[in-house]
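Worked problem 6 (solution included).
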Amino acid sequence: MSNDASLDINQKSNPVQAVAPPKEDNNMLRATDKITALYCRLSVEDTKEKDGKDDPSNSIQHQKMILLQYAKENRFPNLTFFVDDGYSGTNYDRPGFQAMLAEIEAGRVAVCITKDLSRLGRNSSLTGLYINFTFPKYNVRYIAINDHFDTIDPNSTDSDIAGIKNWFNEFFAKDTSRKIRAVQKAKGARGVPLTVNVPFGYIKDPEDKTKWIVDEAAAVVVKRIFKLCMEGRGPMQIAKLLQEEKVLNPTAYKRRAGIKTPSPQTDDPYHWNTNTVVHILERREYTGCTVNFKTYTNSIWDKKQRETPLENQAVFYDTHPAIIEQEIFDKVQEIRQQRHRRTKTGKSSLFSGMVYCADCGAKMRYCTTNYFEKRQDHFVCANYRSNTGSCSAHFIRAVVLEDLVWMHMKAVIFYVTRYEAHFRAVMEHKLLLSSEEKICASVKRLEQAQRRMGELDRLFIRIYEDNVAGRITDERFSMMSRTYEDEQTQLKVEIQSLQQEIEVQERQIENLEQFIQRVHKYEDLDELTPYALRELVKAIYIEAPDKSSGKRRQNIRISYDLVGFIPLNELMNEETA
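Solution. The predicted structure is:
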């Protein structure tokens, strides 16, 4: 709001109670050690005029000049400024105001002065509460200079209309918020990045601030974090490793590069927080896309950021150079979903989180102690180790598992790179047969679920009409409607899951091509690496040992990423024939 005429600090006439209190009151005031609190507040929106230019009349310095001149002219003692620069008036969680409130509650404030009521706040309810309850409770006189408001005379006309002014200040805040939201929504819908702080690994393009370009030095660290995750390292392990290697954390890196960041400076520039690593691993922008509307707030009063459901976020692809390939990003998200338990020794296995029991489907637990030699580390079925003991051990040593997996992966890599055409033909036939069967079953169930959703909508209308006509009681209507609503909620989840499943099945041939491209990357691989394992293999299933021949024979089945199980023996026999 602008108050052009009243902002002139040289103006002599001022209807507010500007005269000093009676002489005896002045003597008492001077005799006390209580302070006169001069409160200034400024938010970003308050600096803007209608044409969008900066409004110097609302600046902190201008407010200080007005308050200081007024306090001196009226001989208020012990002047103390409390300032909130860049804080909204819609809530009172501001450091300057809270510091002043602490002084008030401690009984050390006699008078509080602001330039106008809106500087105190733009929440009419809370502003009224402070003016009418908190300040009187602690014997604090409150003055709003430009609004001619002074609590020393509660019966004045200006005091009567203070509530209306507070309401208007709140309306102004709401109206400003609506306009800002509308502008942000329009920008976000066009694909303009809404985030002010560019992700670590990017910087703003000097020629176009709405575009991002790769910061090569930071991008190396981002790629390293993803690589470590692909190798089976958890966020805590990654953070510890980066700290040991003296890698600057994002905040320290940006500050040293002269890039603005809201994050507070850390005591140790090489300390990496686990949450920082998680945030990097989960940030889709690294694949080259812009993601808008990731969070929302309920109102201008509730500033808490809440996560927007993924389906409601706006994603714009190929808006800037990618640091991480989409395939790698998706694989990392899968790995993140398969969080595995760390052993007490701190050791972890190459296969942790990837090994399952072929019979019961439970995860195989990695077992090791500091007393074990490496060859004694092993995996056992989690259900065997549980209290129920509902499955057999499916015991397999880690070194044996590594040999079996590497042998199978070498054979697959060799076959795909040498006999790609035959591999593609056989796998396409296998995937199509599997997909057609699954798609038919999923489509049939989807149609049934959608029909049932329509039936429930009609049933809702019928029981509502019956309730209005008095044919069923309110209690009966309430019970039936809850039942129908619960069923509809379950059906919506099922329909969404079925649609996603059908989409995945329809992409099988595309997935096969991606898998073949990945395999070609490892044509010259001479040893099993964590990265190659995670990129090619999705899960490993351990079968129960076969002792029918008198010797213990251990079989495993490997599900490869994107294509599932590969009938390697069948493929080799056909090629040999």
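Discussion: Residues 1-31 have pLDDT under 50 and may be disordered.
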